[in-house]
Amino acid sequence: MKLRPLESTKQDVEKLLGPPTSFDQEYAIAHYKTAKGSLHIFYSLGKCDVKGKNWSVPVDLMTDAELMFEDTGLPLLSDYITDPTKLLRKKAKDSEFFYKILLSHDWSIGYAVARSKKRIDVVSMITLRPPKKDWNKRCKQTSR
């Protein structure tokens, strides 16, 4: 079973990962502690808010996932990507060391936020987002 943004339900996630370590009811975010960091699963609230920070999809659908690694357990980029030398890197605005790598599929868009640590590429975060074809389901920002 794979977790897919705007397809996987909260029930699917918990079937695969078990119950979260904690759950933020207000923002519908499940927090999991992992051996090398933390995993955050974001769910739809089932309604749009005035800030446009949600998806116009049924409640409890997974919208995003973020896997964040602690400094002591940073995996090598080569553990996830066969040939990291061929990837396009986009330098993060506020850092000369961090960069984003786009990992795109028909069912999701992922970003690996990596950095060079003693000239070795390590991953600090992996983000999974809905694909561009579904961005029309994102709530529109409204004025009050």
Question: How is this fold's topology laid out?
Answer:
Layout: H1 10-17, E1 22-24, E2 29-34, E3 37-43, E4 62-69, E5 89-91, E6 98-104, E7 109-117, E8 120-129
Antiparallel strand pairs: 1-2, 2-3, 3-4, 4-8, 5-6, 6-7, 7-8
Order of helices and strands: HEEEEEEEE
What's the end-to-end separation, in Å?
42 Å
The strand count comes to: 8
- Indicate the mean pLDDT: 77
* Rg result: 16 Å
What does this structure look like?
It is a single chain. Helix content is 6%, strand content 37%. The chain is built from 1 helix and 8 strands, in the order αββββββββ. It has 144 residues and is mostly beta strands. Strand 7 and strand 8 (120-129) form a beta hairpin.
Briefly characterize the structure.
The chain is mostly beta strands and 144 residues long. The chain is built from one helix and eight strands, in the order H-E-E-E-E-E-E-E-E. The chain has one domain.
Keywords:
single chain; 144 residues; mainly beta; eight-stranded antiparallel sheet; 8 strands; globular
